[in-house]
Amino acid sequence: MDILVFAAFGLSLWAQFKVKGNFNKWSQVEASSHKTGAEVARQILDQNGLYQVRVEAVRGTLTDHYDPMSRVVRLSEPVYHSHSIAAVSVAAHEVGHAIQHQKSYGALVLRHKMFPIVNLTSGIAPFLLIGGLFLGQLNLIGLGIILFSFAVAFQLITLPVEFNASSRAKKLMVSEGIITNNEEHGVNKVLGAAALTYVAGALMALFELLKFVMIFLQGDED
Q: What confidence score (pLDDT) does residue 222 get?
């Protein structure tokens, strides 16, 4: 099981490397529409009736996200101001989340409902698991497993949310004339690498959970 955890960790590191590599590569290729990430985000939002959703610049690199509480698409400065394939891809992806919110996409709704619970349990679970292992207390390990399972479920639910946002982004960019068919390859590279990081994270969390379950079951047999 440890081998699987380390393999997932290695996949996570490789995925992060791919994200940065593809983003940097396609940041050098200007989109034929000559629109910035901010302009693309605003265009797609308006075309979908999301006039109230703001587009703001945020510091950092790859810090792009959609804030459902404030109804704001926040784009990192390299995305907000750039005309590149990478910039318009990331901007459209984040708008994809805003559209999911508008349409009450099931997985996103469930993810939002789980967030307060996961925010609490993910902070407690590690202490219970470590304490249970150190003290040899199966009841603490069992409780830690239950709480940690919420975080794993949250990671797994995130996968369809991210894949769906990317799928919406690609379709919208084509329909809006933001990219041409020849530019879809670059978009797929940028968004595909980003999706891989979520897959790696979910696998790592899942294997960690299975490892603790096996420890619990072995201890219960003794």
A: 55
